[in-house]
Design brief:
By secondary structure, the protein is of the alpha/beta class. It has helices spanning 6-20, 44-48, 60-72, 91-98, 101-104, 134-138, 151-163, 212-225, 243-253, 268-279, 302-308, 312-324, and strands at residues 2-5, 24-28, 53-55, 76-80, 114-119, 144-147, 168-173, 180-183, 196-199, 204-208, 230-234, 237-239, 256-263, 289-293. This is Pyruvate dehydrogenase E1 component subunit beta.
């Protein structure tokens, strides 16, 4: 085992896959000489050179389109978005090109592209740098979407995403890059379509992902001390959603709380609620509780920013209320 920060785990995954397969390359703003804004590509330029670690202009629509074209020719590009909010400028390329070309070409083209980078509510980064775009992309056919939450799953998911022949968006949270964890020295990959059972329990199922996993576990630590027994699922895969794992948990607990940093309207939780109501409504003994961010641009003011997202005390209160009713 070796202890790594999350940014190092992502860097190690990228390095291993570039070393394993010469068709893998990375492009984005400041990924080369500077080593990436969060140092995920640090020193890779010195090892692999200009043709495999490409510094691009500030033109997301152009370099994401270039990456899709490269993928069509058989290369395996990794696009780093300096901030995932900026990828709205490449929405057309991600939707109409990356998501659809394998289908619209009748399977003649594969699109093995990974789009990854930081997002989420940080420490006073302002509205335009604090967006959560998972729900924006969740509706696009042809994409796979995953959200890492630990150094371990960050590395395993990125390696699997690079090897996949379909476009994969990997959401990383800006506040998790300095998270530390012991990782196996042996190579490993993780599935792109499976949730992780973080804690087994019997009273209530808490479904979450990304940074909110850590808020949930802080709440769960206190709840366990008070005699409660919650089950925790980390979604990891946001498209497709692992409804099998959720339904399996509901067969034990019959109660569901969803905790997300996404906005409430049209968020990931909204999709889960719709699917549970469609197929697993009879498993529920109580209405589903949705703990989501407020539907407003994220304020710059620190106190207001904190007020827009979910914290452990709200999770604790919701669990106690649901179980007591």
């Amino acid at each position: 085992m070796v202890q790594l920060f999350m940014f190092d785990a992502l860097r190690q995954a990228t390095d291993e896959e570039m070393n394993r397969d010469k068709s893998v390359f990375i492009l984005g703003e400041d990924v080369g000489h500077y080593g990436g804004s969060y140092k995920v590509t640090k020193d890779l330029h010195a090892k692999y050179g200009d043709l495999r670690v490409l510094d691009t202009p500030i033109a997301e629509n152009s370099f994401v389109g270039m990456a899709v074209g490269a993928a069509i020719t058989g290369l395996r590009p990794i696009v780093e978005g300096m901030n995932m909010s900026f990828l709205l400028l490449a929405f057309n390329q991600i939707s109409n090109n990356a998501g659809m070309l394998r289908y619209t070409s009748g399977g003649n083209f594969k699109i093995p592209i990974v789009i990854r980078g930081p997002g989420g509510v940080g420490r006073q980064l302002g509205a335009e740098h604090s967006q959560r775009l998972e729900a924006y992309f969740q509706a696009i056919p042809g994409l796979k979407i995953v959200a890492c939450s630990t150094p371990y799953n960050a590395k395993g998911l990125l390696k699997s995403a690079i090897r996949d022949d379909n476009p994969v968006i990997l959401f990383e949270h800006v506040l998790l890059y300095n998270l530390k964890e012991n990782l196996p020295e042996d190579e490993y990959c993780l599935p792109l379509d499976k949730a992780e059972l973080v804690r087994s329990g019997t009273q209530v199922t808490i479904v979450t992902y990304s940074r909110m996993r850590h808020h949930v576990m802080q709440a769960v630590t206190q709840l366990i001390g008070e005699g409660y027994d919650p089950e925790v699922l980390d979604l990891i895969s946001l498209k497709p959603i692992d409804m099998q794992a959720i339904s399996k948990s509901l067969r034990k607990t019959h109660k569901l709380i969803i905790v997300e940093e996404c906005m409430k309207t049209g968020g990931i939780a909204a999709e889960i609620i719709a699917q549970v109501n469609d197929s697993y409504f009879d498993l529920l003994d109580a209405p589903i509780v949705r703990l989501s961010s407020h539907d407003i641009p994220t304020p710059y003011n620190g106190r207001l920013e904190k007020a827009t997202v979910i914290y452990p005390e709200q999770i604790i209160a919701s669990v106690k209320t649901m179980i007591s009713n």
